Amino acid sequence: MNTNHTTQFTIDDLRRIMRESAGQDEAVDLEGDILDTHFQELGYDSLALLETTSRIAREYGIAIADEDLDGAESPGALLQLVNQALTRV
Amino acid sequence: MDNRADIRPARDVALLFPGQGAQQRHMARGLYRRRADFRDRMDEVFDAWGPGAAELRDDWLAEHPGVDLDALEHAQPLLFAVDWALGRTVLDWGVRPVALLGHSVGEVAAAALAGVFTLQEAAGLMADRVAQLADTPAGGMLAVHASAEQLSGYLGADVVVGAVNGPRQVLLAGPQEPLDAAERRLRADGFTCRRARAGKPFHSPALAAAAELALPGLVGLPLRPPQLPLHSAYRPGPMSARTATDPCFWARQPAAPVLFGPALDGLLAARDVLLLEAGPGQGLTGLARRHPAVTSGRSAVLPLSPVRSGDDASDLETLRAAAELLADAGHLT
């Protein structure tokens, strides 16, 4: 992995995009240490999560395979996945 | 983010019951194996079910079920059973809900708890429904990240809005081919879509004729006004005695749209509550967690099941933790 790129996508980037993907006008509570919290516990079901990743993919010009996404059940795991994809761009 | 702290201000409890799509392999199995209270209630449902109950139970408990658990004949009865048994367990603890709101088949479980049907009658309705819908065309439901208004251009005679779960979560329903076509168009236009786990075009006109077959059985039942504050997701709001005792209202549910989002909006606008999801998974909990009434802290939400089933210890721990929080908040008598 190219370490120069590993911090391109941060938890705050993810928080912003998750909020945009929530489908509600008011902000979802994503404060605090959410890296290892299950997406479902944050209120993100599979559809809201897919919306989140497709927004990330569009904005950052990357592709994330659905199979990979299945294993990413927390913001921390998704961050890792996105940053791996960014190093491949 | 601390879900535990924010249920502290004592609020009235509202129960939510999930429907098709919430089924999971081994859902609530840990409770059945390890908690006598839940097990007794589940066994009541199996006893009420009659023929086929033993197979249903065995398929549910089997380590490697040899059947499709998403199929109508497994998913619908087991969802009904787990919803009812979990709801009954919570009522047994002394929780006095100010509202019961179910999604799809969850509304039948809620109605049975509210006394519209006896358990026996509700199980009979479910068994009839499974048999009556068996020969309907294959199809499904497609979750789309969009509002119902945004989807108007993708609907037709076959493909309809089957459920409105929230401002940006709609499920389209229809037979296989037209639903596939709608999905291709939606994806091409940049909408995020996901197939729901349903093998039938639930809540669409494709099931209308088969759904009507339930009418003679329902007409023969002494439907009763709800004895608990039952809400409806088909006619969002508190369910009137007139609606609850209308056989047509119950018969048409498999072919009628579920307006769960608007029903939840109404419930949360009327009062601040602690929402308890009584059923497998945390699907309705997730919808509620993104709701402005919950994100603002006015209302709160507490699931009784883990996100994923299959681990007995996590089934037990999730329910135990919920009971503890309810006891602390003074809901258990």
Structure notes:
The complex is a heterodimer of chains A (89) and B (333). Chain A has 89 residues and is mostly helical. Chain A is 52% helix and 0% strand. Chain A contains four helices and no strands. Chain A has helices at 11-21, 46-60, 66-71, 75-88. Chain A starts with 10 loop residues before the first helix and ends with a helix. Chain B starts with 11 loop residues before the first strand and ends in a 5-residue tail after the last helix. Chain B folds into two domains: 5-135 and 205-328, Malonyl-Coenzyme A Acyl Carrier Protein, domain 2; 139-195, Alpha-Beta Plaits (2-Layer Sandwich), CATH 3.30.70. Chain B is 44% helix and 14% strand. Chain B is built from 15 helices and ten strands. Residues 1-5 of chain B have low confidence and may be disordered. With 333 residues, chain B is of the alpha/beta class. At the A-B interface, α2 of A face α13 of B.
Task: Give a concise summary.
The complex is a heterodimer of chains A (89) and B (333). With 89 residues, chain A is mostly helical.
Salient structural properties:
heterodimer; A: about 50% helix; globular; disordered N terminus; B: alpha/beta; Malonyl-Coenzyme A Acyl Carrier Protein, domain 2; Alpha-Beta Plaits; 2 domains; four-stranded parallel β-sheet; 15 helices; about 45% helix
